[in-house]
Structure formats: C-alpha cells, structure tokens
Amino acid sequence: MSRLNELRLISRVAQMYHIEGRRQAEIAQHLRLSQATVSRMLKRAEAEDIVRTSVIPPVGTYSELEGGLRDKFQLPEAIVVECTEDRDGAIMARIGEAAAHMLEVTLSPGEIIGVSSWSQTIFKMVENIHPQKSAQAKYVVQTLGGMGDPSVQTHATQLTTRLARLTGAEPKLLPVQGVTTSREARLLMQSDPYVRETMDLFGSITLAIVGVGGVEPSELLARSGNIFSSRELADLEEAGAVGDISLRFFDKNGRLVKTPLDDRVIGLPIEDLERVDRVIALAGGAKKAAAIAGALHIGVIDMLVTDKFTAERLISY
C-alpha cells in the first residue's frame, strides 16, 4: 500500500500542476512539501506513466509525412506544407510562404546567407518575408552567377538585394554569367575583384538556401540563358544525372556527376555545402521528384521544405 499511497500523492501533484495550472511553489505550500519534492514528483509522474504527453497536429499539417521524409532520407528536418492543387505555381507559393516563416523565426544575428539566384520558389520566399529588426544578417551572398538575357537578368539581382534589405544585410552580388562559354572565360570573369570578393565569402556562409532543379531547366532558367545546350543536357542524362543544385549535377543516389561542364559554371560547388552550418532546400512538383530524392541522398541538406503531394511521392520512391 505504501507504493499506492506514494503514487496517489504524485498523481495529485501532477493534477494540480498540469490540469489546475498551479505553480510548483504554490503546490509545495498547499501540500506542505518542499519545492524540490514537487519537482521530483512531477518527473516521477512521467516515469510512472501517470502523465502522458500527446501531440495532436493541427489540420493542414503533415507530421507523418515529415517523419517519413526524415526516416527515409536520414534528413534532420522536413516541412511539408498544405497545398490544394498539385500544380507548380500553387506549390511554389505555399513552399515560399512556409520557408519565409521559418527564416524569420530562426535567423540569427550576423548570419551570412547564401542564396541561389535563379529559383522561382526562393523568390516566392523572399516575397513573403517581413523586414527583420532584431535578428539581422550580415551578408546575403549570391551563390550562382546572375547575368544572362537582359529581359530576365534582373531577377537574380532583385532576389539577392531584396532579401538583403529585408534581413538588414549587405548584398554581395555575382555580376557575371552563371554559365560561361569556356573554362578560360570562367577564370577570366572570376578574376574580377568584385566577383572575387563575393566568391571569397562562400566559405563563410552559415545558412544556404537552395533550389533543386531537374536536368531539364526551369522556364526561368531557360529564359535567363544560363543553361547548357540540348546536346550537353543529353550527355548529362546519359551520365546518370537526375537534377542539380545551382547547376551542379548529381544522380539518383546523390553521387555528383562530374563533367567538363563544371568548369564553365560560376557558383558554389555542392561539396562546399558540407561546410555550411544549415542548408535549406525549397523544392516541389511532380517533375522534380527524382531530382529532390537524389538531392536528399547527397547528405548536405539539413531541411527540406516541400508540399504534401511531393512528400508522398518521395516516401513511395
């Protein structure tokens, strides 16, 4: 009976604390116990299964899908957003909203943010960010060349400068093409002091925000002119490529597909993401499922923000 009496008192302490909302000091005074004893009893209440913690996810959240992604890909964290339409435009908008909120609540003062410049989903994120007053970043670093077709080249500059303004940071631009005509052209462009200044910050990035693309370029990237020829893209597919992060390609198992094309890209290599404290990937859509799966297998992504339709495809992949 002594154990039952002990458990009865523990149950009463737990009831007062969790149900009646009383503070530990108040419980201790009411029951003539020390506050240390009350604290120990609350811990015992959990150990004895008197108090059980239940998490009931709100409607519109997908904790099971998030858990499935974490388990399947050994992914540290996943955010799966509600989306009523399995359509690229709607998916990008919802992912952008969720990513904006996550950035706002997790941004640390002095953060150096690396951002992939030719991503419509990242642009949607930037559109949804509120100006940050307390936790302000130091730099926003463009991680892929932003020049291209004059009709769309402002996209990359706008994305970087707008994110910098919203986070209180200084923008560091890459005012060169993402894809050069040759290795020699790349080396020449990288010798520009402004380009060099930005690229020297790659090793100091603390937060990288990346998109994931398929071998077939997005409409925006295709319009920018920062793409390879049809023959070169076909060669990438023959080599096993399924997708890219900032025009660095990988196969379905996350192995990097190295070709001479790498020598023509001005941007952050995937290998450098391993040294970044936090890498957030924003990606979704039926056409990108294979690319996203491959990207997750690389092992450099710390958080994926995607939609429920894509999450279901990835888990069943």
UniProtKB/TrEMBL annotation:
* InterPro entries named in the record: Homeodomain-like_sf, NagB/RpiA_transferase-like, SorC_transcr_regulators, Sugar-bd_dom_put
- Domain (Sugar-binding) spans 62-315
Coiled coil start-end? none
GO MF: carbohydrate binding; DNA binding
Q: Kindly list the residue ranges recorded as spanning the membrane.
A: none
Q: Name one Pfam family in it.
A: Sugar-bind
Q: Which SUPFAM superfamilies match?
A: Homeodomain-like (SSF46689), NagB/RpiA/CoA transferase-like (SSF100950)
Keyword annotations for this protein, in alphabetical order, are:
DNA-binding, Transcription, Transcription regulation
Family recorded in the similarity comment? Belongs to the SorC transcriptional regulatory family.
Query: Know the name of this protein?
Result: Sugar-binding transcriptional regulator
